[in-house]
Amino acid sequence: IETNAYVRSRHETCRAVRALCTPTFDVISVDAPFVVGAPPGLDVPMFDAYARYAQGQFAPMPVFGPAGGTNFISTLSLAEAVWGALQRGEAGKAYLVGDENLSFAEYFQYFFNFFVAVFFQFIHLAVNVIFLLNVSIGQIISLIFFRFNIGINSR
Questions:
Q1: Is the CA virtual torsion 42, 87, 99, 14 positive or negative?
Q2: Alpha helix positions (H), the chain
Q3: Average per-residue pLDDT for the chain
Q4: Is the distance from CB of 74 to CB of 107 less than 8 angstroms?
Q5: In 10, 34, 62, 153, which residue has its Cα 20 to 30 A from 108's Cα atom?
Q6: What does each C-alpha distance from 83 to 22, 95, 102, 154 come to in angstroms?
Q7: How far apart are CA 66 and CA 20, in angstroms?
């Protein structure tokens, strides 16, 4: 707490919020770490950027994870923790919640693994469609080159 301003600010905020507790005003602090996820339909620019990074759209930025790590919690786990605190929490208390400790490299690896899996699912689907349609790879390539006017220059 003494050496890290972020951790100190979280600690002091929790203490200040709990100090608001009175006999007529209950206060419970649910202290969450890095929250991952979003309700369906909510655009989260941070996660969009991670997805674009995993898809290689930030090239030539190298693939890496910063040093260090933290605890992460999903939005579902956090919602359950808040609900549990509302149902069974003790006024004036703090509850430290979290799901999993990960390095930042491990955290980013989840995004890369997801997009690799999606890519291979797409390839698998495409191969099955080609097989079902009894279309040759040569016919597909010819169609792509013809449709998009892709020319191959040789020198």
A1: positive
A2: 5-18, 45-54, 75-88, 104-133, 137-147
A3: 81
A4: no
A5: 10
A6: 21, 12, 25, 66
A7: 38
pLDDT at position 90 over 90: yes
3-state secondary structure of 78: helix
Question: Angle of helix 45-54 relative to helix 104-133, nearest 10 degrees?
Answer: 60
Please give the Cα distance from 137 to 143 (Å, whole number): 10
Over residues 9-27, the pLDDT tens digits come to 999 999 999 999 999 999 9
What three-state secondary structure class fits 33? coil
CA–CA separation, 4 vs 102, rounded Å? Answer: 19
Instruction: Write out the DSSP string of 102-116.
Output: EEHHHHHHHHHHHHH
CA gyration radius for the chain?
25
Let me know the angle formed at the C-alpha of 85 by 80 and 88, rounded to the nearest 5 degrees: 115
Q: Exposure pattern of 51-77 as b/e (b: 16+ CB <10 Å)?
A: eebbeeeeeeeeeeeeeeeeebbeeeb
Type of residue at 63? V
The whole-angstrom separation of Cα 102 and Cα 42 is 25
